[in-house]
Amino acid sequence: MLSKEITSKVRGHVNEETVSEKVNQFFRHGNTFLLLELISLRREVQSLREELEQQREQKQQNSLRALIVP
Hints:
Elements: H1 2-10, H2 16-29, H3 31-68
C-alpha cells in the first residue's frame, strides 16, 4: 500500500521497482535504513552546493572578463 502511494507521487522521476525496493529496505532495517539515506542525501546536497558555487564563480569570472576585455 505504501509502495503504491509513493509510486503514484513520484511517477516519472523514480521507477516502481526502485520505490518497492526502498520501501522493503525501510521495513526490514528501519532506523538504519533512514540513517543511511540521510547520509546519502547530505552527500548529494553537498555535491550540489559545490556545483552551484562553481557555477557562481564562473559567472563572476566571465562578467569580470567582459568588463576588462571589451
